[in-house]
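The protein record minuted underneath.
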Amino acid sequence: MRVIWFDIDSMRPDHFGCYGYHRDITPNMDRIARQGVRFNRCYVNSSPCVPSRASFMSGRFGIHHGALTHWGPGSEFRFPGIDKYDTFAPLLPRYLRENGYRTVSFSSFADRHLANWFYAGWEEFNTSTLKRGDETADEVNAAVLPWLERNGASENYFLHIQYWDPHRNYEPPQAYFDALRDQPAPDWPDAGAIREHAANYGPFAATELYPARDGTPPNELMPARIDTVEDFKQFVDGYDASIRYMDDRIGEVFSVLDRLGVLDDVAIVISADHGESMGEQGIYGDHVSASEPVHNVPLIIRWPGVTPPDRSHDGLLYNVDVHPTLCELLGLPVPQGWDGESFTDALRGEPWAGRPYLVWDHCLYTCQRAVRTPEWLYIRNYHPGLFPWDDVMLYDMRVDRRMTRNLIKDKPEVARDLDGVLNDWLQQNLGPGSMPDPMGEVIRTGPFKYVRLEPWLARLRAKGRTGDADRIVARLHDGHGCQ
């Protein structure tokens, strides 16, 4: 079997046409969705990039693989084995290779994050460039397309292709940006929401879009800050133009496979390492919390001879649930040590309910865990980082998918039940013989990686936001482990 996994960085599912987006920016990926099955409620167990791709490699939750942040305490990937590889929870590419598949990756992720464990098990690994994630989809395809010309018609390969273009800073070709000028932006955030977002004093907030810079946009396409709906349109146009540019490059991959006569015989998986905030919680264009838009990712699977055309499912599932499903479809035994549960029935068009709930976490800019049920999203804040969010948050996702109203005081019984679910999940996953929870190390040292505490306080004070800086300090010293 030929399998291609498209691994897209920072991709929101609701910016696909097949997920209902009003802009036509994903025609090539939408075509695959019409031929297969789309999952509306797929979520990564751990975000952002390093934790999520550690789950991609290991098939395990972040609480087990250990890499909950990008570097430092709490980031150590718990390699499966000491002097030899553990067959109980094998790495995905190594396991497939051991079972006769040629495993090939085109990705600069390991180089970008110095995550050498990501190289393990691949028969071939190509970083495309030395730009460490700043390469364009054209530069990725410059390596991918020749490989496909030589090998695309061969049998039994697992090809992993990663594209970075939707990751900020958005820098699409001007023509792609211009093509969106007359197309309306999403109808939220509206002017009222944007005014409220000005109160958020954390990185990537409406008035702090570029925390690594002095407020200057990274390119002429982007606004300096978001004060109006016109500013937001300019910002989201950059994101959407980047997606459309990438989708055209994915179309080039399909064209090569079609010319080789094998496109209809290739199994295709389209997914992402995490999503991207576009105003939710006052954050624009990044991934800083255990929120819905950060953890919700696209999942589109077209499997020849298995998937019925143009189906969708609303059941809850994790990114790691793809691993046992992949094995079942390939006729391979499912390793017992993986955390995923197969959803092969859903791909075959048979009844499938999904998981009753999910638990996920984020440990780069904040330390949070969340419980997601079909109705509710409950978030517990263990360390707020540099953000003003409440210690506990509860959202009714049936009517408030933008997470605009915290119902923690209105629905204490719901919060209590979901907190019990979270505690039960922790007990199950930190049982006898388990390694310590890696989140504890991040809480102890603080989730201040790309944006450090003291420089951020100085930045706020220099802008006349001394009160906001004082609120951060007071909150951290009030029991959240300021280091």
About this structure: The two ends are 52 Å apart (CA to CA). The chain has a mean pLDDT of 96.
